[in-house]
Amino acid sequence: MRNFYSITKAQTGAEPLALSDAKTYLRIDGTDDDTLVTALIASSRSVAEKYINKAIVQYTVTLTLDYLPPGGILLPIGPVQSVTSIQVTDSSNTTTTWNSSNYVVDTQGGRIVYVVGASLPPSYALVNGVTVTYVAGYGLASDVTGVPAGIVQGIRHLIAGSYENREVAVDVPPLVCALLDPFKKYVI
Questions:
Q1: How far apart are CA 140 and CA 108, in angstroms?
Q2: In Å, how far are 12, 57, 61 from 88, measured between CA atoms?
Q3: Computed from CA positions of residues 170, 171, 174, 179, in that sequence, does the dihedral angle turn out positive or negative?
Q4: How many Å apart are CA 134 and CA 109, to the nearest integer?
């Protein structure tokens, strides 16, 4: 049986570049373009996230599965900071939180591995029977110093390109690709 899943994420962290930093990089004085530059920060970060297949800012991610897959759970959005909870709903529609002593979080690999001998809850094939809530991203809620400098510089270049070429859609330039490639997660 195939395990169907859905993902929702809510941004809980600050953007990796402050408005004042972006304006300094763009050499903008005054406040006339503040709304535009703020939008460019968010959209450029979003483009960078899509390119590297990782969360740059901090998100709370909810992964919903039909059942616990054998061997462990691959977390689709990384880098993983922590797992908040794993909740399992049984056939009588009772939801319980699975004890964290039953699994190990591999933050480097972006997965949850079951502890040998752990008491696995029954693997009922329920629609949305398992809910994994976790925190992902380079940045923290209030501190973005965890975002690698190459990513921040790539975002600066995306902002500058979008600011200078407002009327034309711009592809991700080779320099930005070179800055972001070391952080790219390849999906096999």
A1: 17
A2: 25, 28, 16
A3: positive
A4: 14
**Residue linked to tokens 């009922």:** 124
Domains of the chain: 5-56+142-183 (1.10.3230.30), 59-136 (2.60.40)
- Which residues are 10's β-sheet partners? 60
Q: Order of strands, edge to edge, in the sheet holding 111-114? A: 72-74, 111-114, 103-106
Tell me, what amino acid is at 121?
Answer: P
Contact between 176 and 40 under an 8 Å Cβ cutoff? The reply is no
Task: Quote the pTM value.
Answer: 0.84
pLDDT in tens, 130-173: 999 999 999 776 777 789 999 999 999 999 999 988 877 767 88
Name the token pair of 113: 């591995």
CA-based nearest residue to 130, from 93, 70, 102, 88: 88
Using N-to-C axis directions, what is the helix angle for 149-164 and 34-52, rounded to 10°? 130
CA atoms within 13 A on the CB side of 21: 12
